[in-house]
Amino acid sequence: MSPHAEELPGFYYDPEKNRYFRLLPGHNNHNPLTKDSIQHKAMECKRLRLLEEEEKQNRKTTRAGLNSSMLLQKRQLGLLSSTSYCRLVHELKVNCMQRRKIEIHSPDSSVAGTNNFKIIVADVACERIFTVNDVEHGGCKYGIINLSGLGKESLTVEMYDNLYFTNRKVNSVCWASLTHPDSHLCLMGIAETPGCASLLPASLFSSTNPGDRPGMLCSFKISTAWSCAWCLNPQADNCFSTGLTRRVLVTNVVTGHRQTFGTSSDVLAQQFATQTPVLYNGCRSGEIFSIDVRQRNRRGQSWKAIRLFHGSAVTSLHLMEAEHYLMAADMAGKIKLWDLRTTKCVKQYRGHHNEYALLPLHVNEEEGLLIAVGQDCYTRIWSLQDAHLLRTIPSPHPSSKDAIPSVVFSSRLGGSRGVPGLLMAVKQDLYHFSYN
């Protein structure tokens, strides 16, 4: 019988054994042949096959005939512009990235490799990575990884943590530039009910003497927090925003002044513009709207400016450098590029997988790449220019809800003289995909 056998209700066709098997309505210890177990087995077989191809370097470029000699020849003949040449070279680099495990050192030997990574977020210079790790007894542990030791030969990093903050579940985190670039961290999380918003000095995680630790700049209780963003525009200096249940809270951390904007839905994603004091918000309802934070929120006035709509909950936003375009992802797995001047979708990036998770987007305009990790634990890389899917990277660990990788991509991991590549944190491990 053909591998594309006809589906029969209540039965599963096994192409290897060329026969049908009855599906059980639920899990059964004696014969665990259920729809979920079949799908999990198929996904795991696919992941192992792709990992084997990765190790053997059997990957093929997604564009026919794309190779370094062809590119160089076309460039010399004048058939490729410098922009197109650079873009295609980056595509080749993405295809050639190889995975290597990073060794994590810590002054406290009990820290490294003991808790699963949940979130990693790089500062602007990509010199440090803030990490959120799940703790077995509940809550989260926070730390900072210094990437300065990430060389081309030795892949080692130093990790520092602060054991004082261990019992708060973190939903969202962003770097904040208060006294100097990336000097603090905004944390949004749940302590009990209600939740908690905190602004912590980054130096808190590098001091080895407990007596030298600076205190929190601010911390206050709020309803459940979903997202946060720091404003770098001088017209709204020292402000950070918190996306809450049916409202947006903008706080000036120096003066303590707060502005509240009521919404009809939970705010799951946020980003400030840098050229104007405008905050973009993505909601559970699928709506995306902007707020000019200079205006005062008066009852009866409409303060929403630009409004866009997705068909599902918006999980991530990224404002492009020129601030004419906004990238947004949702819980239906759709990634769209919106033109803010015409409020129309101009591109879609297909292949992303999401059903209910808050998954971030990573955009690198310099290399022309979009990176997103799906709920299926695959890391996908697209060309920003034509939305072509360039590479799909399987996770080194079996797919599960608690093993979705968190990634960082930069051409300078470790600072201006750092190494380029993709960092992937999954389970208790950190990996580097070399981008040379």
UniProtKB/TrEMBL annotation:
One of its GO terms (cellular component) is Cul4-RING E3 ubiquitin ligase complex. WD repeats lie at residues 310-348. Transmembrane segments: none annotated. The keyword Repeat applies. Pfam families: Beta-prop_DCAF4. Keywords: Repeat, WD repeat. This is DDB1- and CUL4-associated factor 4. The gene is DCAF4.
